[in-house]
């Protein structure tokens, strides 16, 4: 799955989520929780609308800032992908993503799938569907991660072998041409001395070697670097695409919930909390994009998808706010299952693909101060994101 195709898949998933959530949360699904609630006044609606517009631009700007910092930081020596600061920033962002899965999304999934508004005769109170969804999300991510990485690796080695064979044929052709030219030169000058013969031999050997070196250089340029660098970049491309997929799932839900809310007291703290949430998540995704070494077009596409998902969800929520009931059974089931799967995806990505990979990096393992630094950075990120659960 190449980057443009992956972007289409992510767009399709986002559109599917919007189609599922928009009609699912209708007020005529039972109306649980709506009886005792007073209808919002006109002033509250106007204030809520203003806060939603502020949330739209705040989340958009903060998401773009967080995602673009690591990408633009490639031009800053201190923020290069192999620098110490980059390890610290990525560990901080991974801690944020880990806390997002455990503290924000998974508890919300349990709350929705065990709500009193769900039918008493259904299976929702007899089985922990939220934990099951998280497990399915984590296992599914593992399968996609390993299968995609294996596919890219086999494809890469196949292309490398073909390029090497082409380079070898080119080098042999150059050597044959040089040998023919040398034989013609020898036939034209049969009385030349031994030293001249030796010089001709050296000349032929040098040209053949030059042709071989030229073919090797072309091979390295064709695959985009050395073998290790190419495999590393392919691995991070898979990580970046799967991580963005997990982020898109819960970002759509967050946006629709915020846009459909009519309570200013609920929306106001969410604006600040979700802005920081989006910025920190963007830093983690941006770090993966940098290490994946995408082309400019793919980078722009992935950054735009990340930045626009939650704001577009807010717009959809505003559009369906008149018929939206977050306590309807259908809405609770759909949001609960999607949240649990998203939590499993993010927890797996944070632990396996972000933290474990960097913590086991030989550069980190050989330097005690850097190892301590990324541990502290991870804990700070997880701690700050956990504190935001008080408001969001």
TrEMBL record:
<dbReference type="Pfam" id="PF02535">
    <property type="entry name" value="Zip"/>
</dbReference>
<keyword id="KW-0732">Signal</keyword>
<keyword id="KW-0472">Membrane</keyword>
<feature type="transmembrane region" description="Helical">
    <location>
        <begin position="302"/>
        <end position="324"/>
    </location>
</feature>
<feature type="signal peptide">
    <location>
        <begin position="1"/>
        <end position="27"/>
    </location>
</feature>
<dbReference type="InterPro" id="IPR003689">
    <property type="entry name" value="ZIP"/>
</dbReference>
<keyword id="KW-0812">Transmembrane</keyword>
<feature type="transmembrane region" description="Helical">
    <location>
        <begin position="372"/>
        <end position="389"/>
    </location>
</feature>
<feature type="transmembrane region" description="Helical">
    <location>
        <begin position="127"/>
        <end position="148"/>
    </location>
</feature>
<feature type="transmembrane region" description="Helical">
    <location>
        <begin position="330"/>
        <end position="351"/>
    </location>
</feature>
<feature type="region of interest" description="Disordered">
    <location>
        <begin position="180"/>
        <end position="202"/>
    </location>
</feature>
<keyword id="KW-1133">Transmembrane helix</keyword>
<protein>
    <submittedName>
        <fullName>ZIP zinc/iron transport family protein</fullName>
    </submittedName>
</protein>
<dbReference type="InterPro" id="IPR004698">
    <property type="entry name" value="Zn/Fe_permease_fun/pln"/>
</dbReference>
<comment type="similarity">
    <text>Belongs to the ZIP transporter (TC 2.A.5) family.</text>
</comment>
<dbReference type="GO" id="GO:0005385">
    <property type="term" value="F:zinc ion transmembrane transporter activity"/>
</dbReference>
<keyword id="KW-0406">Ion transport</keyword>
<dbReference type="GO" id="GO:0005886">
    <property type="term" value="C:plasma membrane"/>
</dbReference>
<keyword id="KW-0813">Transport</keyword>
<feature type="transmembrane region" description="Helical">
    <location>
        <begin position="51"/>
        <end position="73"/>
    </location>
</feature>
<feature type="transmembrane region" description="Helical">
    <location>
        <begin position="85"/>
        <end position="107"/>
    </location>
</feature>
